[in-house]
Amino acid sequence: MSAKSLFEKIWEAHEVSDGLIYVDLHLVHEVTSPQAFEGLRLADRGVRRPDKTIATADHNVPTDGTATARLIADELSRKQVEALEQNCKEFGIPIYSLGSDRQGIVHVIGPELGVTQPGLTIVCGDSHTATHGAFGALAIPIGTSEVEHVLATQCLVQNRPKTMRIDYSGELGVGVTPKDLILATIGRLGAGGMVGHAVEYAGPAIEALSMEGRMTVCNMTIEGGGRAGMIAPDETTFEWVEGRPGAPDDFDAALDRWRSLPTEDGASFDTEVQIDAAELAPMVTWGTNPGMVVEVTDSVPDPAVLDSPVDRESAERALAYMALKPGTSMREIPLDRVFIGPAPTHGSETFERRPRWSRATAPPTPCARWSSPVRSRSRRRPKRRGSTRSSVPPVSSGAAQAARCAWE
User: Fold this and answer.
1) What pLDDT sits at residue 300?
2) Which of 23, 36, 48, 315 fits a 20 to 30 Å CA distance from 375?
3) For the domain that residue 196 is a member of, what is the CATH number?
4) DSSP state of 161
5) 382 in a domain, yes or no?
6) Measured between alpha carbons, how far is 122 from 137 in angstroms, rounded to an integer?
7) CA neighbor of 377 nearest in space, from 11, 37, 22
8) Which pLDDT value is given to residue 64?
9) d(CA 293, CA 280)
């Protein structure tokens, strides 16, 4: 048997048929789901696996600690959050809306709760879903029509991407962060250098990163045009997941599975890239896409030196838009504004909001398991009632009290 990569192992374990893969975890938020839920209603369909679906209010929530969606000042934003709550209530999906201490950035709550795990296929209607690949998962961003398809079937129609491995030798220098690492990589490959590929980041420089750093690298895969970013799971990964509410009950058995996932020696990739991490410096972008990046001690480049006519034209437009002149030192460019917050990489470098839990302590809830009501597949009378089980407590507030705590 030929040696297999991390991607190949996960893809082949989830491939239902050619071009169709099974989804282990579907993360839902208020922006890309309303039309998907309405499509289910019009087709009189239900959600195939509510227990493998988790929703949170994310993109349109206020940051001032307000308690419910009804206090969101912007009408459209408020309606989207309220629609998410109502949809989750109707279809029996666990939700963390405003007022829940587990509500948060959709790419953050999965790792925080421990439901993001090695070997899983994960999808979400957001481009930065690649963040979850830091755990050795295959995490793919999807659009609204695909959100509906996954809700209805728990499967995703997906052409098998090409594979790329970026191997980093050496160690990051003083002051060089994971964000610098991925920006320098995109700068070398170009903003479209990863298009059509599932990218595995490997090598000593990657293995030395914290989980927060790994999430930053995988998160930015989309800025390089990649389909998914992945990092092989190791002891750093396992330590992160252990003890979290969504961690497997039989953790030792899970470890045995997870330790078999990393890429085997001799595995082949469609594209391989070698980068010496020790040569990298702190980076800064100067233009209108992440590929327009230089070291912080460099100057704005001259478009005339670029080989590609397309790159030259793009650089010229960016310079005009940014009102910059070639040769200007990056250190001489004044800062008009400084934003402190999660965007554009959704907080992956300032990840943890709450203390870690250990296996010796109970999760911050009295529930041993949580039960979510299964709602009718029709807008008319319920056809059936039952419950679906999840290892994650779907606590919510506002319009959607979608779940109840059930002792076992």
Assistant:
1) 94
2) 23
3) 3.30.499.10
4) P
5) yes
6) 7
7) 37
8) 61
9) 12
pLDDT at position 237 is 98
**Rounded distance, CA 36 to CA 34, Å?**
5
Q: What is the DSSP pairing of strand 162-169 with strand 53-56?
A: unpaired
* C-beta of residue 181 within 8 angstroms of C-beta of residue 280: yes
Q: Which domain holds residue 279?
A: 6-286+333-398
For β-strands 138-141 and 155-157, DSSP reports them as unpaired
**Residue 193, both tokens:** 């250098």
What single letter denotes the amino acid at residue 395? V
Sign of the alpha-carbon torsion through 117, 118, 121, 125? positive
pTM of this structure: 0.82
Report yes or no on 94 lying in a domain: yes
State how beta strands 155-157 and 20-22 pair: antiparallel
d(CA 150, CA 10): 18
State the number of CA atoms in the 13 A half-sphere of 361 facing the CB.
Answer: 8
Give the number of other Cβ atoms within 10 Å of residue 181's Cβ.
Answer: 25
Q: How far apart are CA 160 and CA 143, in angstroms?
A: 17
Per-residue pLDDT at 337 = 85
Q: How far is residue 97 from each of residues 283, 306, 341, 401, 403, measured CA to CA in Å?
A: 36, 48, 20, 10, 12
In this prediction, residue 36 carries a pLDDT of 96
Cα–Cα distance measured from residue 27 to residue 105, given in angstroms and rounded to the nearest whole number: 11
In a domain, 293, yes or no: no
Q: Is residue 304 part of a domain?
A: no
* 3-class DSSP assignment, residue 389: strand
pLDDT, position 374: 32
Could you report the average pLDDT of every consecutive run of 10 residues in the chain (408 residues)? Answer: 94 96 97 95 96 92 61 83 93 90 90 97 96 98 96 97 97 94 95 95 98 96 96 98 96 97 97 97 91 93 89 92 92 84 44 36 31 33 35 35 25
Query: In the chain, what is the greatest distance between 2 CA atoms, to the nearest angstrom?
Result: 70
**What's residue 61's pLDDT?**
80
Domains: count for the chain: 1
CA–CA distance, 175 with 172 (Å, rounded to integer): 8
